[in-house]
Input
Amino acid sequence: MSGGTRCMVMRGGTSKGAYFLAGDLPPGTRERDDLLLRIMGSPDPRQIDGIGGADPLTSKVAVVSPSGRTDVDVEYLFLQLGVEEATVSDRQNCGNLLAGIGPFAVERGLVTAGPERTSVRIRMVNSDSVATATFPTPGGVVDYDGDTAISGVPGTAAPVVLDFEGTEGSACGALLPTGNVRDVIDGVPVTCLDNGMPVVVAAASGLGLTGYEDVAALAADEALRERVQSLRLQAGRLMGLGDVSGTSVPKTTLVAPAREGGAICTRTFIPLRVHASIGVLGAVTTATALLMEGAVGHDLATLPDPGVPMSIEHPTGRLDVQVELDESAGRPAIRRSSIVRTARKLSDGTVFARPGSQP
Ligand code: NQM
Output
């Protein structure tokens, strides 16, 4: 057995992942990805011989390094590992694992904590955009405890405030990558948007659904899965992403009028598995669509007053996001996006990968 690899396991928002310093991993991408797959236990539906949790939301890796840029503290590369497939993708970002990056950077000594709270400027390598994470560090030590609750996580924890910059066109190069506010694919009106995550927004009714179905019912609907796949394959081309059959983006979010007092009700496919809630940047992108005149969902949403967070309902609760859109110049532009998450250190130590000779 090898000497193992230094690794911290953290819950970031409603996801869980393995956090590494880049310097603790092999420098070559092939060797790094091979090691990470063996550490997580992929490919295997149960990831039984690794530390992955047999779900895309718990088969995630964050690779963190000091930044050479003067306006940024650390670089964060997100890697989505397949569960049943031996895939490692850097084509999407993860706003949930992002919540753990600031605390991890302090824990590993990359950033010196302030006496009460610390703000860490993080370059999200996948999208070449920046997020500032602010979290409590009383006495210069990360405090994970607090009274902020987020849907999908039991109990409460310390808030991590995430402010995004430059998320427009994160993977597609433009906020409206097809050039249109609305397109029609397979007869279904959609809005294809990228404000941190490429997302295809469609009305649930456009697919013959109410939008309030539970996750199990949606997951069991084979015909729906095929329709979602057809939508995203065509949308992927229109969005300039090429053939997206083997990638985790774009996501598809189905929207319906809110029924719990929020702005909208959502059901999201990542890319075909039904999300238990909704991703952070996926929610930021969906909220952006709702604000846009003419976009799918705009007429279905109950929009809050400017400056008030928008509450996105999902299968296990709500996610509140703040997006400010500027449509004054004719072309929509993002003024600000932010969100509050929590994170928690679950373990810190050495992880041992299964030997490399196995498939
Ligand atoms: O959208 C799931 C998640 C995510 C990604 C996904 C995410 C985001 O819930 O920023 O956080 O969309 O694959 O962690």
